[in-house]
Amino acid sequence: MEEYRSLYSFTLEETYPSDYLVANYFCSKSPYSIFTRKKICTKPTPEGRITLMGKELKIRQNGEVTKTVIEDDKEYDRVLKDYFDLTVND
Question: Which Pfam family, any one of them, does this sequence belong to (predicted)?
Answer without folding.
Answer: Acetyltransf_2
